Amino acid sequence: MQVIDRHKVNEQIDELKQKYGNDRSALLPILQELQDVYGYLPDLLMQETAHALDLHPVEVEGVASFYSFFRTKEKQGKYVIRLCRTISCDIAGKTNVARQLENELGIKFGRTTKDGMFTLEYSNCLGMCDQGPALMVNDRLFATVTPDKVSQIVADCRRNFVKSDFPKVVPSDVKKAGPILKHGLKSGDSLKTALNMKRSEIIGTIRESGLKGRGGAGFPTAIKWQLAGAAMDEQKYVVCNADEGEPGTFKDRLLLYDQIDFMLDGMCIAAYAVGANKGFIYLRGEYLYMKKYLEEILEKRRQDNLLGENILGKEGFNFDLQVRMGVGAYVCGEETALIESLEGYRGEPRNRPPFPVDTGFQKHPTTVNNVETFLDAALIVVKGAAWFKEYGTEKSNGTKLFSVSGNCERPGVYELPFGISISELLKEVGGEDAKAVQIGGASGHCVPRHDFERTIAYEDLSSGGSIIVFGPGTDMLEVAKNFMEFFVEESCGQCTPCRDGNPKLLDGIKLLEKGRCSVTYLNELVKLGETIQLASKCGLGQSSPNAFLSIIQNFKPEILGRVPERD
Ligand SMILES: Cc1cc2nc3c(=O)[nH]c(=O)nc-3n(C[C@H](O)[C@H](O)[C@H](O)COP(=O)(O)O)c2cc1C
Ligand code: SF4
Q: What is the 498 CA–ligand 2 centroid distance (Å)?
């Protein structure tokens, strides 16, 4: 049993406070760093952290127990192996990899080996859906893992390879680039242009372009920036939502590497337009391997006067930002939960109104946008609204980045115009024989073959970018089950319809699986799903039954036709 030296812990916490601050918003990063050192967060660490930040220990425990990457009860292994359980990795052969991991380590998932070397866990989407099965060992990512590769990975760990040997860059996988990815600008070009414009001109150009948020909800970016700009406060924030937790989505991971400077130009332009001087990139915990890279880019921009004080010589325009890590909670992609998390609370969505543009981070006006939205905004400022409007449909301007995975020949990132039909998209990616396509990830809709002429656009099927192709042999109930397990795990538990309703739907799916669900019971499940959609507090619960309901609607004979299992 490890004896922890209280005095040393206090010294470490003091150092961390210098780095992250004295207030509650420092709580998550402090706990993250302490867990890195001690392997878990026993009571002593939580008590001392509480004391240092003037909190009650129960508050700290409440926060630590919320996030799936924190461990309070049992020390984690030296190597924590997290295997992605999302449907795309499932299609790519996750089950065989899981079996091999259990055999190789002699433990089941959720356990730690007796020698304290390995902890084995499932993880929700790792954002490597086009290169599955994927797993992480601490902060190192492995793609296209085979059972043979598992043996190699485990052997390498046993030989004690160390963190710093890990490569940090994930290969790009752009299968089709369009006007956004082939913009041809240099870093800082768009920011220079913006700083020669009036704030109202910038927002006017964004409005004229019709840009809508690329994170999924499709809210007009100009309205958000205008409201934040009009808010009366000396202190305002701009936040990049890089939480990218929707199963099947990995386009932001690509942008954070390949387009980071242009995305940061977009954040600076937003800060200038709304009058903010501080910001954050909220990066999902699963992308920890990118943190250092991003921090180096931020430092380089400070040296180049693209961040910091009087940016590019513009007197009085000061803006700087920090990278903050998520800790394995999908709901923290919801912008108010994200803000709670930044403030050091459990990631529980807030009631709205008030909206973040009015009352956001620490009650100050806060503009939260998706990675792709900031990139698009930066390009629009230089290239003009008309350039953007050349692509897409009347109500869905521009192109969109799609993360394509599942049963298709060419999975990867595609930049395509809004308004493309599913059948055109399937031709592009080599998935013409698909039985169904999931548009918008687990929270989106499952579209059957007879609807493949429908289009991807805000006026028809909207999507934050996740497209999962299901081939002719796919068991659609398995798909519904995989997504429902995800929501049951990721619900924040704040409201009853989502917390208690989704497990009931999952029970129903399990009965269907056994061929023991009557039509009457199925109809009850459909009603329950509709109630969850209506009565849940946030977008997670409101969209959680979507996949289940669309699968029931479109594949009823397949779902009900299962032969009852014998006892
Ligand atoms: C459960 C849930 C998860 C979400 N996850 C993300 C995410 O990972 N990235 C993102 O940009 N938006 C996500 N959103 C949408 C955000 O709440 C918000 O609308 C978005 O960050 C606004 O940026 P945009 O207008 O640029 O799209 C999520 C919403 C919900 C309800
Ligand atoms: S809908 Fe679900 S995730 Fe959203 S607040 Fe309610 S319990 Fe939490």
A: 6
| Residue 479 · residue 446 · CB < 8 Å | yes
Pocket of ligand 2 (CB under 6 A): 331, 349, 491-495, 498-499, 536-538, 540-541
Residue nearest to atom 1 of ligand 1 (CA): 540
Furthest C-alpha separation in the chain: 76
H-helix or E-strand spanning residue 207? helix 199-209
Q: Which atom of ligand 2 has the smallest separation from the CA of 541?
A: 1
Instruction: State the pTM of this model.
Output: 0.96
Question: Which stretch of DSSP H or E encloses residue 468?
Answer: strand 466-470
Best residue for ligand 2 mutational test, from 491, 504, 543 (most atoms within 8 Å of Cβ): 491
Query: What's the rounded mean pLDDT across residues 416-431?
Result: 97
Task: Please state, in angstroms and rounded to a whole number, the distance separating the CA atoms of residues 165 and 5.
Answer: 30
Residue 113 Cα distances to 23, 76, 548, angstroms: 37, 9, 37
Pairing of strands 135-137, 79-84: antiparallel
Can you tell me the mean pLDDT for 524-550?
97
The residue assigned the tokens 């031709």 is: 427
Interval 108-126 mean pLDDT:
94
C-beta separation of 375 from 398 below 8 A:
no
Whole-number pLDDT of residue 300: 97
Q: What gap in Å lies between CA 381 and CA 401, rounded to an integer? A: 19
Mean pLDDT of 535-545: 97
